[in-house]
Amino acid sequence: MIKNYFKIAVRNLQRNKAYSLINIVGLTIGLTACLLVSTVVLDDLSYDHQWKNADYIYRVISVDKSNKNAVEEVPRSFTGLGPTLKKTFPEISGYCRMQVEKRRLKIGANKDGVEIKALSAEPSVWNTLDFDVVAGNPKYFVKGYKNLVISEKIKAEYFANTDPIGKTITDIPEFGKPGNYMITGVIKNIPSNTHLRADILEINEPRPGDDVLEKQGYGTFAQQYFVLKPGASAADFTAKANKWIKNYLTNKAFPYSIYLQPMKDVYLRSSNFSSHDDTQGDIRNVYIFSGVAIMLLLIACINFVNLTTARALKRVREAGIRKVLGAGRRDLIMQFLFESLLFFLIAFIAGMVLYGIFLKPVETYIGHPLALNLQSNALLFASTCGIVLIVSILTGIYPALLISVQNPVSTIKGQANVNVSSNFLRKGLVVAQFTISVVILIATIIVQDQLHFIDNKDLGYDKNNLLHLEQMSWDGKAQAFKQATLEITGVKNASLANWSPGGGGGSMQLSVDDPHQKNNMLKVWYINADFDFVPTMQFRLQKGRLLNSKLSTDAFNADSLMEKSMDKYEKAQLYQPVIATNFTARTLNIKQLNKLLGNGEGVGMPVGVINDFNNESLKTDMKPVFIRASRNIEYGSLLVRTEPGADKRVLTGLYKIWQQFFPDKVFQYNWVDDLLRDQYKTEQKLQQLFTLFSFLILFLASLGLFGLTIFTAELKVKEIGIRKVLGASVAGITTLLSKDFIKPVLLAIIIASPIAWYAMDKWLQNYAYRITMPWWIFAISGFIAVFIALITISYQTIRAALANPVKSLRSE
After folding, report:
1. How does DSSP classify residue 212?
2. CA-CA distance, 610 to 732, in Å (whole number)?
3. Do residues 164 and 107 lie in contact, with contact meaning Cβ atoms separated by under 8 Å?
4. Which of 269, 625, 771, 783 has the greatest CB tally within 10 Å of its CB?
5. Count H helices, E strands: the chain?
6. What is the CA radius of gyration of the chain?
7. pLDDT score for 506
8. How far apart are CA 505 and CA 48, in angstroms?
9. How many Å apart are CA 493 and CA 98, to the nearest integer?
């Protein structure tokens, strides 16, 4: 019997080539896109689940509540917190301070070295995470060196024919002198699905003082992880730890508390402090892409139902003859289900071929290999096959039931009994398709509009023709290098600074009293730079004066003084003249210049006010910022303002003098507009993906509408013939048929608009500076949907209107 089902299914597939091709193409596109998107989603959900202690590892988050209007969270805590709490609380079985950093090591043929991501940690990392050691004994720390444990990937690339164990290499640091590393072992590649993604382990012993928690409430912050004992409650421990910290510290005004973030949540649920994590996802994107994957599969299935139903009603005579010859309803259902399975099987095989082709480009696009995919995970592949089988049965059951329920006498005459509910269902499916399409289309336009707004917003300075040399140690040559830069043809100005656009809010941050709210603290950013910073950035003076290099009190050697005496540095900055922005002056109630601020807090003395500028991402609100001058910046970046069109000439000149001043360092630069654009890479990719998804979904929805057009034309073939005989025009018949198809699309637009508005309003709330959603976005999205619908149905409706009425009215 199964063999017979198969033969009939193949014959029907071959007989109706155009219909079969449309069905298979629609299913293949839907399945392929769904499988690729689902793979990315499942990979995101798998992050940091592979560690043996994953259920007990937590990252420590510090919460600063000093500003009652803006609670600040950072994934850092005092270095001495872990050791101190481990001695105090039995719930902690271990701790480790570790974070991913970029290292440039002198390996390989490139004289500039190789930039590699390193997981910088202390020896306790071996008790926190489980790595598979391939060679060496890296758990034994070799003193006198930074211990380096390389992955199999690095070994294969740079030590393919040699034993790397015991070899020493050096780095090319941005700051300080080169360091010596000893390779102590080789481990299997660190899984890509971890927020601690790296290619090497850098093991360092704690520095003196790292294990001490100062009672005064100050010290160095570091990213650290606690390992709790099985059965210990993270919430209970956090409450006890915060209470203990409050009693331990002598500074009762200490604003920080802590909470523990489960390691499994770090990758997807850290949007509050995204600037601190190099490898980060977003749970909201998981929800979005999960919805898109379901939508793509759903639309493909809706298309199949509509097209299959349309074609199946032409086979009612076949069903009637089968019933007369003794076939039961079960046999007819099985026949149509088997045909559905055949279509899905062909589409799934084609989809898997396309999946294999597009998997690598997808990995390249997202920037890392997918740890979970259908080609490498047998369980995932088997589960996918099961899901596709279930979907194919559920999708094929409706057309099968529709045909099998027909009266055999009527079906032999070629008459199908199609009730109102089935028509309503089919039109409802088209409404669902276009609702999804319009929502995605509106989202695409809004994301693009927001990115355009960000790219064109006035930041308070000219981001164009502004070159940024990466922060580094200038080795006492900063002023000489800057002077040589100014002599390059095409350079207008240059400034040394401890801040760069897109690189954070400033050089440092302090908390000061809020003059507008009692017992509240405000975070104030400071930018340390030389005297040419304001003209280089092209800020505009609004009031007072700028900092002047001829006035000895306007600046001091901050880096040198900080190294000699922190107390003298803090006292000096208390009286140092500073430049404030308009927003800073309003926020801190600065009404009089040349007057000391801060009541001993080290705020400084404002001597001038400049225009407001965005020193951080446009996702955050503007914060108070002061500009301070330093006479000799040892660590920082160089900002170079160039003449329009002089880019290549300036870069050539800069590289030439760089080789003279710093032959052993890497020449690293970026244009500021690129740096700022990189802040929104996630949004740019989201917009690109939405564009692709909207195209796919509209294409699949059009196929579904095409199926409904065929179905309606088949049902109304005699009505059209009668109307033509009675004198109806081709245009009138075309309009009559088109109205039935446009109505579901218009209804879809009405349903989709509030859904899209609500969803995108939530998304736009991530930005302090955002667009207001104009009505034309919804109007143009609706117009595109209607236009595509008209293009889709025009061929079939015109063809039906032009058909010879003699043929349509003939009774056989």
Report:
1. -
2. 68
3. no
4. 625
5. 25, 24
6. 34
7. 80
8. 30
9. 40
CA distance 199 to 377: 23
Six-digit token string for 681: 């890479």
How would DSSP label each residue in 227-246?
Answer: EEPTT--HHHHHHHHHHHHH
Q: Give me 33's structure tokens.
A: 């896109």
> Is 0.85 surpassed by the pTM of this model?
no
Q: DSSP strand E in 499-613: where?
A: 508-513, 521-529, 541-544, 555-556, 577-581, 605-610
540, HSE (Cβ side, Cα atoms, 13 Å): 9
**How many Cβ atoms from other residues are within 10 Å of residue 287's Cβ?**
11
- Can you name the residues that pair with 186 across neighbouring β-strands? 135, 150
Alpha helices in 110-233 (DSSP H): 125-128, 152-158
Q: Kind of pairing, strands 114-121 and 200-203?
A: parallel
For 524, residues 6+ apart whose C-beta sits below 8 A from its C-beta are 509, 510, 511, 512, 584, 588, 603, 623, 624, 625, 626
Length of the chain, in residues: 812
SS3 letters across 666-725:
CCCEEEHHHHHHHCCHHHHHHHHHHHHHHHHHHHHHHHHHHHHHHHHHHHCHHHHHHHHH
Tokens of 433: 């398709």
Closest CA to 148 of 168, 134, 133: 168
Cβ contacts of 790 within 8 Å, gap of 6 or more: 738, 742
d(CA 787, CA 623): 47
C-alpha to C-alpha distance for 123 and 128, rounded to whole angstroms: 10
Residue 755 structure tokens: 């859904």
Provide the token pair at 456. Answer: 């064109």
How far is the C-alpha of 165 from the C-alpha of 162, rounded, in Å? 9
pLDDT per position as a tens digit, 327-358: 555 666 777 777 788 888 899 999 999 999 99
CA angle 657, 661, 667 (to 5 degrees): 70
Mean pLDDT score, 18-43: 87
Helix (H) or strand (E) holding 45: helix 17-45
3-state secondary structure of 32: helix
CA nearest 438: which of 427, 428, 426, 446? 446
To the nearest whole number, what is the mean pLDDT of the chain? 82
Pairing of strands 669-671, 555-556: unpaired
- 735 has pLDDT over 90: no
Interval 153-201: pLDDT, tens: 999 999 988 899 999 998 887 777 788 899 999 999 999 899 999 999 9
| φ, ψ (nearest 5 deg) of residue 235 | -65, -45
CB distance 319 to 721 below 8 Å: no
